[in-house]
Amino acid sequence: MYAVIKTGGKQYRIAAGEKLKIEQIPADIGQEITLDNILSVGEGDQIKIGTPTVEGAVVKAKVLAHGRHDKIKIFKMRRRKHYRKQQGHRQNYTEILIESISA
Protein backbone atom coordinates (compact mmCIF):
# COMPACT_ATOMS: atom_id res chain seq x y z
CA MET A 1 0.00 0.00 0.00
CA TYR A 2 1.24 3.49 -0.82
CA ALA A 3 -0.01 7.04 -0.40
CA VAL A 4 0.73 10.52 -1.69
CA ILE A 5 0.86 13.07 1.12
CA LYS A 6 1.30 16.81 1.17
CA THR A 7 3.34 18.48 3.90
CA GLY A 8 5.47 21.58 3.97
CA GLY A 9 4.29 22.65 0.52
CA LYS A 10 5.68 19.48 -1.09
CA GLN A 11 4.19 16.14 -2.12
CA TYR A 12 5.73 12.76 -1.27
CA ARG A 13 4.92 9.21 -2.38
CA ILE A 14 5.32 7.02 0.70
CA ALA A 15 4.92 3.42 1.81
CA ALA A 16 4.99 1.77 5.24
CA GLY A 17 8.50 1.33 6.65
CA GLU A 18 10.11 4.19 4.70
CA LYS A 19 12.27 6.93 6.19
CA LEU A 20 11.59 10.42 4.90
CA LYS A 21 13.04 13.90 5.42
CA ILE A 22 10.30 16.53 5.38
CA GLU A 23 10.17 20.23 6.22
CA GLN A 24 10.62 20.82 9.93
CA ILE A 25 7.54 20.27 12.08
CA PRO A 26 7.20 21.10 15.80
CA ALA A 27 7.32 17.61 17.35
CA ASP A 28 9.61 15.90 19.85
CA ILE A 29 11.92 13.03 18.94
CA GLY A 30 10.15 9.72 19.47
CA GLN A 31 6.69 11.29 19.28
CA GLU A 32 4.07 9.67 17.05
CA ILE A 33 2.39 12.04 14.61
CA THR A 34 -0.54 11.67 12.23
CA LEU A 35 -0.54 13.12 8.74
CA ASP A 36 -4.07 13.68 7.46
CA ASN A 37 -3.45 15.69 4.29
CA ILE A 38 -3.48 12.63 1.98
CA LEU A 39 -4.01 13.24 -1.72
CA SER A 40 -4.30 9.63 -2.89
CA VAL A 41 -4.04 6.06 -1.61
CA GLY A 42 -3.28 3.03 -3.74
CA GLU A 43 -2.82 -0.70 -3.43
CA GLY A 44 -2.08 -2.88 -6.44
CA ASP A 45 -4.41 -1.88 -9.30
CA GLN A 46 -6.85 0.05 -7.09
CA ILE A 47 -6.35 3.74 -6.34
CA LYS A 48 -8.40 6.31 -4.45
CA ILE A 49 -7.86 9.91 -5.49
CA GLY A 50 -9.13 12.63 -3.17
CA THR A 51 -10.89 15.86 -4.09
CA PRO A 52 -8.64 17.41 -2.77
CA THR A 53 -7.94 14.89 0.02
CA VAL A 54 -9.06 11.32 0.72
CA GLU A 55 -11.70 11.30 3.46
CA GLY A 56 -10.84 9.15 6.50
CA ALA A 57 -7.30 8.31 5.36
CA VAL A 58 -4.58 8.65 8.00
CA VAL A 59 -0.83 8.09 7.95
CA LYS A 60 0.89 7.39 11.26
CA ALA A 61 4.57 8.27 11.53
CA LYS A 62 7.24 8.46 14.23
CA VAL A 63 9.72 11.35 14.50
CA LEU A 64 13.29 10.02 14.36
CA ALA A 65 15.43 13.18 14.30
CA HIS A 66 15.70 16.86 13.53
CA GLY A 67 18.57 18.29 11.54
CA ARG A 68 19.80 20.58 8.80
CA HIS A 69 20.51 19.78 5.15
CA ASP A 70 23.82 20.52 3.44
CA LYS A 71 24.67 24.12 2.72
CA ILE A 72 23.51 25.58 -0.59
CA LYS A 73 25.71 28.35 -1.95
CA ILE A 74 24.04 31.25 -3.75
CA PHE A 75 26.39 33.29 -5.91
CA LYS A 76 25.29 36.29 -7.97
CA MET A 77 27.58 38.17 -10.33
CA ARG A 78 27.27 40.81 -13.03
CA ARG A 79 30.10 40.66 -15.48
CA ARG A 80 32.18 43.79 -16.02
CA LYS A 81 30.25 45.65 -13.26
CA HIS A 82 32.36 44.64 -10.22
CA TYR A 83 29.24 43.19 -8.55
CA ARG A 84 29.56 39.93 -6.64
CA LYS A 85 27.29 38.65 -3.89
CA GLN A 86 27.66 35.36 -2.03
CA GLN A 87 25.19 33.80 0.38
CA GLY A 88 24.62 30.40 1.98
CA HIS A 89 21.52 28.60 3.27
CA ARG A 90 20.84 25.45 5.31
CA GLN A 91 17.24 24.23 5.45
CA ASN A 92 15.90 22.54 8.61
CA TYR A 93 14.26 19.12 8.31
CA THR A 94 12.50 16.47 10.37
CA GLU A 95 13.22 12.82 9.66
CA ILE A 96 10.21 10.53 10.09
CA LEU A 97 9.52 6.81 9.83
CA ILE A 98 6.20 5.84 8.21
CA GLU A 99 4.58 3.23 10.43
CA SER A 100 1.14 2.65 8.89
CA ILE A 101 -1.23 3.85 6.18
CA SER A 102 -4.97 3.38 6.68
CA ALA A 103 -7.64 4.38 4.20
Describe the structure.
This protein has strands at residues 2-7, 10-15, 19-23, 32-35, 38-43, 46-49, 58-68, 72-78, 83-89, 92-102. The strands form three sheets. A four-stranded antiparallel sheet has the order 2-1-5-6, with no helix packed on it. A four-stranded antiparallel sheet has the order 3-10-7-4, with no helix packed on it. The protein contains no helices and ten strands. The protein has 103 residues and is an all-beta fold.
Brief account:
With 103 residues, the protein is an all-beta fold.
**Ends: how far apart?**
10 Å
Biggest sheet features: 4 strands, antiparallel
Give the strand tally: 10
The mean pLDDT is: 96
Instruction: Give, in spatial order, the strands making up the sheet with the most strands.
Output: 2-1-5-6
Show unreliable segments. Answer: none
- Write down the overall geometry: elongated
Helix proportion: under 10%
Structural class: mainly beta
Helix-strand topology string: EEEEEEEEEE
Layout of strands and helices, then pairs:
Elements: E1 2-7, E2 10-15, E3 19-23, E4 32-35, E5 38-43, E6 46-49, E7 58-68, E8 72-78, E9 83-89, E10 92-102
Antiparallel strand pairs: 1-2, 1-5, 3-10, 4-7, 5-6, 7-10, 8-9
Which characteristics define this entry?
mainly beta; four-stranded antiparallel sheet
